[in-house]
Amino acid sequence: MPLTVHIVFLVYAGVLGASVGSFMNVCLGRLPRGESLVRPRSKCPGCGGPIAWYDNVPLLSWILLRGRCRQCRQPISIQYPAVELVTAAMWVGMAMQYGPTWRSLQGSILFSLLLTISLIDARHYLIPDALSLGGLGAGLALALLPGPPSILTSLTGAALGFGVLLAVGVLGEWVFKKPAMGGGDIKMMAMVGAFLGPAGAMLTIFLGALAGTIVFAPLSIKTKKEVPFGVFLGLGAAIAFLFGEALVDWYSSTVFGTV
Predict the structure, then answer these.
(1) Which domain holds residue 256?
(2) Tens digit of each residue's pLDDT (9 = 90 or more) over 101-136
(3) Which of 63, 82, 100 is the last residue of a domain?
(4) What's the pTM?
(5) How distant is the alpha carbon of residue 82 from its chain centre?
(6) Does residue 151 share a domain with residue 83?
């Protein structure tokens, strides 16, 4: 690809990513409250005044307004540009890694979903169906495009991710006599399986459980707080997408290569 075309492609990916990040901010604010993503139009969280389109341009508007509402001059949370910037960086990173391929689009959409789900779950211990089931549909639709995973692999991954986490939840509830797995986590794994296939789904569950055990389990035992498992599943899914094949190859060569 010529350098000029490559630069234009990366800029386009960044602009598109920032726009997706802006929509993610809407999801972060509205989905936990059960509000529509379409209506009413965006408004200032301070004064409640409607935000004009020219004050809603990703990243640029926040910078030009110096992080304050045009009407009431109240500060606007740094969350808004931060999410837009991180999402833009993710989309540019995927574009750099995979080029103008369907894999780049697949990874960009998956990582955007994972970030949104993780932020909501960390704050509200909730994974909205609009994200998990909507993401499941997106994963299956992307599987119809050229390249991996195939639609059969995607369907198998979704079923396996859902089934394994459901079984873990049922078994955990039987052992501990209380709910051990949230329904949102189970549906999230169906979404992850649709993007990553069965091997990626299993790797995600393993990595998520490992991270949750190391990072949060000791704290939850002391404080009796619920574990936002979706955060760790999101981390596991991101690692599985980027390094899944390498990890599986390493494990196979380490375990079976010595037999």
Answers:
(1) 128-259
(2) 999 999 999 999 999 999 999 999 999 999 999 999
(3) 100
(4) 0.90
(5) 15
(6) no
